[in-house]
User: Which sequence fits this backbone?
DNA sequence: GGCCAGGACACCA
DNA sequence: TGGTGTCATGGC
């Protein structure tokens, strides 16, 4: 398969089909940018359901603000987020981010997100506890910057379609999307959200879901071979 | 009771 | 550079 136009057409066609099938998802499920960031950290390797319980606990304790979280005892945060698994590590990660925000940007998310996307991404990746997926979630969903998010669902989706090279790295998959789609925040936002919706709510409830089959699929596509 | 769920990191060969 | 162990809850 030729690279370039074919890839772009395929990726856009899949997106349009997903959008037509499910409608806009309008992510991220949070009310503030800080809540998005906290959610991105808490959902690491855990279901959104468990992360949401932790977020609600933080909200009840009025800790869902950078300043109050920074001041709060580490143990209090850990207790609030127990449902999110690995809560001791995640409490440290939240504290680390709040400290970074306070020291580097006077606690202002406006100042932080004013920074160039790639520079900010590197800064976030330097923080202990923030990896590539979490950094991209923060950039896209909280900062409204065009950084495509690759998560377990994205990898599963590509694998089920037979689109992804087996064992493709995070960077390879991210590059695939970013080099073959218009750099558009809304598009990246919806694309990732639609993939999650499809994998989590549709395929999960219907194990026989046709999209998981290479030969026939419920979105009306039949692909063969990797496009990476 | 076992398995899985929207990672990240340290350590080792 | 890639593989593996660690972290350690809640729902089904």
Assistant:
């Amino acid at each position: 398969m030729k690279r370039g136009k074919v890839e772009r057409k395929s990726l856009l066609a899949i997106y349009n089909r997903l959008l037509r099938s499910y409608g806009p998802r309008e992510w991220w499920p949070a009310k503030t940018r800080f809540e998005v960031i906290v959610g991105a950290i808490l959902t690491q390797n855990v279901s959104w359901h468990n992360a949401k319980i932790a977020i609600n606990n933080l909200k009840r304790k009025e800790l869902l603000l950078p300043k109050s979280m920074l001041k709060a005892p580490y143990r209090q945060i850990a207790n609030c987020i127990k449902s999110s698994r690995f809560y001791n590590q995640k409490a440290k990660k939240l504290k680390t981010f709040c400290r970074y925000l306070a020291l580097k940007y006077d606690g202002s998310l406006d100042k932080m997100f004013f920074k160039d996307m790639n520079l900010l991404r590197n800064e976030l990746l330097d923080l202990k506890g923030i990896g590539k997926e979490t950094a991209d979630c923060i950039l896209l969903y909280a900062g409204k910057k065009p950084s495509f998010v690759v998560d377990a669902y994205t990898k599963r989706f590509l694998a089920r379609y037979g689109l992804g090279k087996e064992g493709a790295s995070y960077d390879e998959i991210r590059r695939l999307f970013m080099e073959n789609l218009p750099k558009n925040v809304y598009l990246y936002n919806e694309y990732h959200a639609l993939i999650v919706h499809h994998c989590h709510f549709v395929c999960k409830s219907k194990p026989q879901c046709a999209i998981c089959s290479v030969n026939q699929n419920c979105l009306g596509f039949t692909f063969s071979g990797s496009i990476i």
Q: What stands out?
A: Chain A is about 60% helix and 0% strand. The domain at 33-142 of chain A is CATH 1.10.340.30 (Endonuclease III; domain 1).
